[in-house]
Amino acid sequence: MTDISSDAMMSAAGNGTSCKAEEIIDTSTFTSADDKVEINTTSTSTVKKKPHKKRKASKGKLKKLWRRATGPPPGIISRSEWLELIELHSDWKIQQANNEEQDTKTSDKSTGGGVAIDKESMTGPLPGPSIGITQQQKDYKVNNWQVTEGSDHRDILMNLLFSKGDMHNNSKSRSQQQPKKKKRKLDTTNNEENNSNLVSIPPLPSWSTITNLASIGGVAVIDLQICGGDTDMPCPLMPSQRIAESTATNSQVTNVWSSLMQSSGSSNNKVERKITAACKVNLFQGDRQVKCISDVLMFQPPPPTDLTTVVNQINGDSDQFFQSMKELFLKPKQLRKERFPIEDTTTSADTLESKAAKERISDMFKSTMSQSKGDTILSTFKHNDALELVSSLSVNIKRRDEEDEVDTDDVSKSEYYVKSYIDSSTPDDNFYTPKIYAIDCEMVKTSSVLPELARVSVIMFTGDEDDNEKTTVVLDELVKPRRGVLDHLTQYSGISASMLTNVETRIEDIQLQLLGMIDSRDILIGHSLENDLRALRFVHCNIIDTSVIFRGNNGRKFSLKHLASVLLQKKIQNGCGTSGHCSIEDAKAALILAVRRARRGDFFRLKENSKRQNIISTFQKINREASGQSKEDSECFAERKEGSCVCIGDNDWVQKYAQSAEGSHHVLGCESIMNSMSMAVPSWLSSEQSTKRAGFLWASLQCEDKRGEWKNEVKKLDEIIQALIRRAPFHIPILIVCQRNHKKALTLKAQRKAAQSPKASSQWTTSQEEEYSKIVEQARSCEAIWIGTA
């Protein structure tokens, strides 16, 4: 990113505004300032140019291309044809200037294939690109303006910057046929970044057309932010008001806008700058998220993911499914980082006593399992020596003294960690099918360092060909804490004092059931499962944690409620008041999330707003990747490296939108439209120096007048428009978008939220709500005009 000094830009702006119209060099027929051809119209010598072997019928070819360029959409969309038109037109103008060819006819009209051609119009500049409306109105009265969405104009910008000619039909207008959405991969050197390196070029809005896509030599966006004035009165800075006033007489500023009107009635057939599309723009919906122009137009949605390579099905391919599940396992480093209980193998050992305990547990479970459904526990068991068995199977866990605090009271001497193991009576690894369990626990607060277990729910995945997401509850028990309860945390756990009154089940009973049910080769699923396993004092290695596999790019963990709502379209944890959570419901939600992630791959994830792509960053990236590509060979404007990328705006806008964009682009501070730096907009677009010529310019100009007179701002805006008309090359389409009272809408929104809080000292009145709704609607209802050639 390059910062331009204000002195240098003031000089550039000053030099630009002092130019006379007749002194401006017409660059519209050239792809860049470096390709200009000088024409000496006063010399009597004959300028000869060797005829090209492919131009024997150059005049006929020129007329054919000229008809298409000045005719209906789509005009010329092939870059090679446009370069040919530039060359033929340049040759023809040289011939006319030197009187090598004398036409006896003042006009050579032709029918078919396009508009009539006359010699007078062809002596002017070549037509450039224009954005039009499919069903053109006769005039641009306010009531006839096209009603559009903000995203429509973003899609048009995407097509202007990144689209290629082959995406547009050469024989039918856009109203007749929409292009298919295409994707271009910018960089595949890093597979981890492939998703962010895809540019998804959307189809044009159904109401719009682009003529002469191949002629684009730059794109300019002027974002006009208007704040202040009487909200009950029309603002004279809005394009609709400027155009409405253009019918008045004896006004110098009126001529600026009347010259842009397509219905100006001029008999001159030369190519001129006109308003090719005037639109009402709905920038956002509702009042929950008030957005500014740059929020909507500058950011493109996250690129879609190709589904063909990421979807797996369990039907008939269980090996593939379990392999996908294994790929979701947390690695040892992740288990340690997320603070899962991990066995300390340096101090733990398998003894004869532990082997006897495992055999005893196996025998007890065989007697309590149903013969018809051996994979489901239908009843639980209690025994008097549970604590003795648990102590025989206890293991030591790795601890970090600075993070893992331990209890040192008398109760802690009867608390043990146990680890899942392989039952000797089960098949070998080659013949063993892992079971999939999901666990969720509810805890209460006691004098212990860690919350103590009060409820545990375990469900097992029993999906088959008939119901691929079927689950069965295999364990749901209330547990009596060893210590006295200080807080039941009812609003979260759903546990009340009355629920635990007659409960006799202890944590060791639950540990024995888990050991008899869960093999060390089985899969455990949960959300922030480390907290549940610590409460259970249970060690297991094959872990899938939905808080980790669905973690955001910035490291943020999403709640299970949010994941279920967005990805499963299911509402959980909706208990009000004292009802709390349901551990069975939470466990099932975590299990289904993990199963779908295994089947659908990375596509099954949250689409974060942070993944939206800044158009400026995308433009810079394509520009950089195409450094070795010739201009003639590129159909995409962003690949042709014609000029710099320039951002102009106040400090807040620059920090939020320009500095956050990737790439090396010029940044210029301009706090207000009344600042002299605002004239840098036409200066950057018309400069003949490649280092000071903008290929892509985005300017956010602030207009604020507390008195609401707007006289100086109106005069300055018209001065900028006049400079753009006179000086900017015809191959640069210009988008001007105006928004009223965006900052005021944000301020009122914050005040409204504060007043509606139960702790607020004053209430939000009806009159305040009416004013808020009016201001939000003003911020939402914007106006946009596209300036092109006609």
Tell me about this structure.
- It is a single chain.
- This protein is of the alpha/beta class and 790 residues long.
- 31% of the residues lie in helices and 16% in strands.
- The strands form six sheets. The chain has a nine-stranded mixed sheet with strand order 1-21-20-22-7-23-24-8-3. Strands 12, 13, 14, 15, 16 and 18 form a six-stranded mixed sheet that branches.
- Helix 21 (680-686) runs parallel beside helix 22 (711-727) and helix 23 packs antiparallel against helix 24 (766-780).
- The chain is elongated.
- The two termini are 36 Å apart.
- The relative contact order is 0.15.
Q: Which geometry do the CA atoms define? A: elongated
Provide the structure class: alpha/beta
H/I helix tally: 24
Radius of gyration over C-alpha positions, nearest whole angstrom: 36 Å
Total beta strands = 24
Q: Hey, roughly how much beta strand do the residues contain?
A: 15-25%
Describe the largest sheet: 9 strands, mixed
First CA to last CA: what distance?
Answer: 36 Å
Low-confidence stretches: 5-48, 52-56, 103-116, 169-197, 263-267, 305-316, 370-380
**Mean pLDDT across every amino acid position:** 78
Q: How are the strands of the largest sheet arranged?
A: 1-21-20-22-7-23-24-8-3
The helicity comes to 25-40%
